[in-house]
Queue: 4 jobs
Job 1
Amino acid sequence: RQHMARGLPKQKPISGVKQVVVVASGKGGVGKSTTAVNLALGLMANNPSKSVGLLDADIHGPSIPKLMNLKGNPDLTESNRMVPLTNYGIPCMSMGFLVDEEAPIVWRGLMVMSALEKLLRQVDWGTLDYLVVDMPPGTGDVQLSISQNIPVAGNSLTHSITHSLAHSVIHSFTQHGAVIVSTPQDIALLDARRGAEMFRKVNVPVLGLVQNMSVFQCPNCQHQTHIFGSDGARKLADTLGVHFLGDIPLHLNIREMSDRGQPVVISSPDSPEAEAYRKLAAAV
Ligand code: ADP
């Protein structure tokens, strides 16, 4: 395999987890975590008999605890594995459950790797049909080229960490694929493209591109505005030869409900925005 040729570590699958969907973005702030949470809930809504878990691999800025309205420290099993915290039927694990909410997470590279290793290896998921992973932002080719030039295993240089994080997350699973979230804006698309290229280089199938914040509909006059552009992500998906997985509108309800820890798929299941996430889950 290509990643072995680069001297990168090959990781074992996570026990009990059948399928992993990593949600990534080249850039921060484009709605990756919001998408990951609603995608997980959408997968559950579409397949009530299946089990879905959510792993927050964003070690530096964990947002799953707030988005899923979860707080507290995980219990430990007899074999010292962490029991995920569950809300809305979704077991979740996040660095946010292990550190003080107010404390800044400023860690050196090796500590980051060992923290991630814990989140990947020491969680008792039981059996899961899907594990949705909220990736750290920034899966660009800068990190890739750094890791190509410097062996990742045992490397403590902070700037190589983002890529090696992405790498160890991705290669920890048997069946996996990446969903890339972008806004239609050129600058976000550029980073999304880099993200897609990075996944290809490490042999991770790109399941497709989601266009977030595509259209804003005025709640008063219903006029629609394409604040960040209209169909950039769709065009990029065409150019890259990957699937276009759909549009998520820029909607006040999505933002407000996210801030309250009540994602729209759960809190407003009949809304068009919830429908958009369920469609996305069906396309993945
Ligand atoms: P990222 O994980 O990419 O950093 P977040 O998911 O944290 O991004 O989203 C960034 C901000 O944008 C949050 O305040 C979130 O509530 C808001 N947001 C994300 N997607 C939408 C959307 N479709 N409509 C409205 N607000 C959104």
Note: Residues 25, 28-34, 63, 137, 212-213, 248, 250-251, 254-255, 258 surround adenosine-5'-diphosphate (CB under 6 Å).
Job 2
Amino acid sequence: MSFKELGLSEPILRSLEELKHKEPSEIQEQAIPIILAGKNLMAAAQTGTGKTGSFVLPILEMLQERAKPYGKNVHALVLTPTRELAAQVRESVNTYGKFTSITSTAVFGGAKIFPQKSKLKKGVDVLVATPGRLLDLVNQKAVKLDQVQILVLDEADHMLDMGFINDIKKIISMTPPVRQNLLFSATFSPEIKKLAQSLGDELVEISAQAPNTTVTKIKQVIYHVDKNKKGDLLAHMIEDEQWAQALVFSRTKHGCEKISNHLNAAGIQTGTIHGDKTQGARTKALREFKEGDVRILVATDVAARGIDISNLPFVVNFDMPTYPNDYIHRIGRTGRAGQEGTAISLMSVDEHKFLRGIEGLLKIKIDQTSHEAFKPTDKPSAGGGDSRSRNPRGRNPAFSRNNRSSDSKSGNSFSKPGGSSSRPSGAGRPGGSGAGRPGGSGAGRPSGSNAGRPSGNSAGNPGGNKKTGSKAKTRWKKT
Ligand code: AMP
């Protein structure tokens, strides 16, 4: 089916043509007709599948036909969990709506409120907002929500994770009772379903891909490694495999800076995005990364949500994510728009418990390996190993059963970049002379690998991770 057949008109088709979006993605094909028919929608949409277009395109179409908002009013309100996502959705409204007269703006915290207020003075067709800043603006009477006709909750699961439920309820109560409601979430939980049902009647439920699954084109690999060798292993892989770019996730803000410093010391250029950075610094880091001026972006979960970077080949979990849903969102930053990508997770012996949650949620087994030059030697702490840790190729005897080690709170630990104890055997300083290759040619590659890739039975076969029958288990953040 074409975009035209979905009911989109000339000005929007023109921008799609300019963007070279030849045909609708699966979620767009499903969602656009439902939204154009004015129905309430709850969509399970994977990140990177064209989710934004699936609501922005029909909203633009519908608002073209309607009267313009005036006097601080808004006709379509999109709520997002993060500033980056708000900015990105707004950019999509601008790009897709380039040949329409639709007006839009984005408001979020961390940026000056005065310019946001002045943009809202005349009213806008589409307002994209994070909940906290929107409430500030409402309280300061800078915006009115009583003419909202369409309400979108984007990445609703994140909004609940981040503790926005009360803000969302407050905002909803300020909008008219009769409105169209659209809820998008990569993962579904009973809480999300409850929220969706509270929005309005006759909710149409769609799913472009089964919820709680990862994009199938992403190759996923777990590397067993000692905690204090993670920095060296990462630097080694980046240089040895000549990664063009990678997004590295850290559990903590402090960890972000440590990883960044470690890579810098290895001669690898980085940027960081986390909650301690000003909005200006976050925007700059993201822009530089998107433009290819920065090779490695190190980020925390909150700051990196919703980031859309095309052609991102690698995502690295420097720390295993504590919450299984974060794993889905993190690795969904690669493999976007039908492209292939690799998600590498560095797992120390104390982190096996997190893998159990992830594999349980995804109902797959993720390939595991270790790097020849960074074989783990740490033993599980007293109390034993993890009952689910696997070793498909008979490696890593250190990973015994029943690991209940609980070091999850400790941040990242590093050996010094130049420290001999952390070096791959025979390796020079990562990023140093010798063509910038630590470990020299082929040194430190996973044994039996092809081009530095693990040789697990589905490695190199995107989406080839094995299904399991284990029950999905989701833990929700209480933040
Ligand atoms: P999203 O899931 O909305 O974040 O979109 C992910 C990426 O896919 C963005 O870079 C979009 O520009 C791109 N995209 C969205 N829809 C299409 C389409 N129909 N054809 C090709 N690319 C698309």
Note: Residues 21, 24-25, 28, 47-53, 308, 310, 336-337 surround adenosine monophosphate (CB under 6 Å).
Job 3
Amino acid sequence: MGSVCRRDWQKKYVGRSRVALKPRTTEQVSELLRYCSSRRLAVVPQGGNTGLVGGSVPVFDEVVISTAAMNRVLHFDEVSGALVAQAGCVLQSLDEFVGQRGFMMPLDLGAKGSCQIGGNVSTGAGGLRLLRYGSLHGSVLGLEVVLPEPLVPTPAPLPRAGAGAGDGLGSGVGGKGSGGDGRVLDLLRTLRKDNTGYDLKQLFIGAEGTLGIVTAVAIQCAPRPASVQVALLACPSFAAVTATLAAARRRLGEVLSAVEFLDTAASTLTTAHLDGVRNPLVAETAGGGVNGGGWGEATGGGGEVTRGSAWSPASSGASGGPFYVLVETHGSDEEHDRQKMERFLEAVMSDGCVADGTLASSEAQAAAIWRLREGIAEALARRGAVYKYDVSLPTSGMYDMVEALRGRLAAGGFGPEAGVAVVGYGHIGDGNLHLNVSAPRYDDVLLGLIEPYVYEFVASRNGSISAEHGIGLMKAGALSYSKGPVAVQLMRAIKAAVDPGGIMNPYKLLPRI
Ligand code: FAD
Ligand code: MLT
Ligand code: ZN
């Protein structure tokens, strides 16, 4: 087995598995789970392996079951837009497939070229347009899931993460089991309405492979918009960002499809590390570099209004940033949507919420703006070590978290001079902040300053320690910051009922007892 299946996308977590299996059919998955249940072999389901919390890779020598070869579209209803696909279909391929039929996938994310629909469902991924198209808890119509065997005699205790190398369940502890059936839970319906008791499919959305293996997904696609408008705006303060969001909701209403934000640190880092990516609101330096190319607290730049844009602010020479807001609309009438967008832009300009901006006048310009936003994760990964936090917080005070951490780290000797950048960006329209600390290398003293501080901060504001990336291995020990004891107890009871042998993705999601 190559390191591809053993190591996560960020190259932060690595296990020691020697076995990665790639079934093609549900029956093969069922056979594999039956075998693993009977031998009490621990299993890690793996999709595109783009998860950001260490959920998709083994901790020890668990058996990796990859859905990469389960990549067939099973059915598409061109009237309703209901798509049924095997779990291993890559999100972008599905979007292209339904795109040829006038539809779009209801979710989109920067990892679309590699992540799989089964992985998206299992993480409960949010993405760039949740604001408009809702979460997977609404758009998933049905699932097919292979469950582990219900009964395993005399389960042996699980080894604890960190208890020593190569002592995982994969070595076959527990002896021979009862020989179950590798149960297939068939919930693969495409109905919009099905009010027949417990909505079991919801349990598997965001279960992170701890309850079973999703083998097929039925999902509601949306009509592909005939008209798309994308603007990038520079706001002078975070209060101006939230006022711009409120204005976008009010003035763009039913056509609004995304409101994303990034701070200057995120913009600077991304343009410095990704070839060909630039912030159109920041002037290039005379030497041809972009944004100074430095780390730490970059300046906003020259604030030039983008050429070729259909809209520009009344005043020229306004400075870019320190915050950038991406606003997108999806509609059916180009002229109507353009007018709406222009009125919105005029309003936020005259209110002083927006100091500078550009409205894409071609698909290429729109894609370039999106590339700046979507490229942040990749740029961070290229720069070095990344401590990634993905939190939900009340929107108005959300950026306090970034500023507080920046101050705390600087005071502890981990400021810009130490090569540490604290970066804030995310799905502001959904109250979701991505708080990232980029450093030259992983450092336990630095980590000690970040955790549990970040989790305590989030809990003190009634936020969530995971808005969309899930819990995985990274946050299993921190679950109680967002879930009370009764909720955790119920989660454990569900896990025990569905996976009594505890073979499904051990050490992930639930805290160790
Ligand atoms: P994997 O990483 O392979 O697995 C993720 C989890 O699901 C693991 O716990 C795994 O065990 C489990 N799993 C996978 N497949 C199955 C299955 N068939 N059955 C049961 N369990 C399974 N997330 C967002 O929410 N929003 C974003 O905007 C976003 N952007 C991203 C951008 C980049 C560049 C990257 C690298 C990641 C991003 N993510 C984002 C993280 C996101 O969770 C994943 O990209 C995606 O949802 C995971 O899909 P995957 O197929 O790669 O799953
Ligand atoms: C994003 O919104 O870009 C993704 O969730 C990835 C990340 O948080 O870096
Ligand atoms: Zn995100």
Note: Confidence is low (pLDDT under 50) at residues 161-180, 286-319.
Job 4
Amino acid sequence: PKIRVTDREGDEYLIEADVGISVMENLRDHDFGVEAICGGCCSCATCHVFVDDAWLPKLQPKSEAEAELVGETIFHKPNSRLSCQIRMTPDLDGLALTIAPEE
Ligand code: FES
């Protein structure tokens, strides 16, 4: 599956994603500046992304921990997600997201 990524400069990329790992892990291997300092344990929010609205219903809902942490970020919006909390699956082929600004 592919992920359609808009980086912090507004440039769009189509990346080949691996399934069974998180979206964050797929993003981290590229040059998008996703630091993922906590390694995916939902405590740093440096994997913050904005998911295109059309894709939001296809994702597993936020856990309480994710909702709380992402809600504390400066740039959070209704379509904010922590990409380490989204597991990449084949049916997410075409998932479109934007990397959130650095805090
Ligand atoms: Fe730290 Fe997602 S990688 S919260």
Note: The pocket of FE2/S2 (inorganic) cluster is lined by residues 24, 36-38, 40, 42-47, 82, 84 (CB under 6 Å).
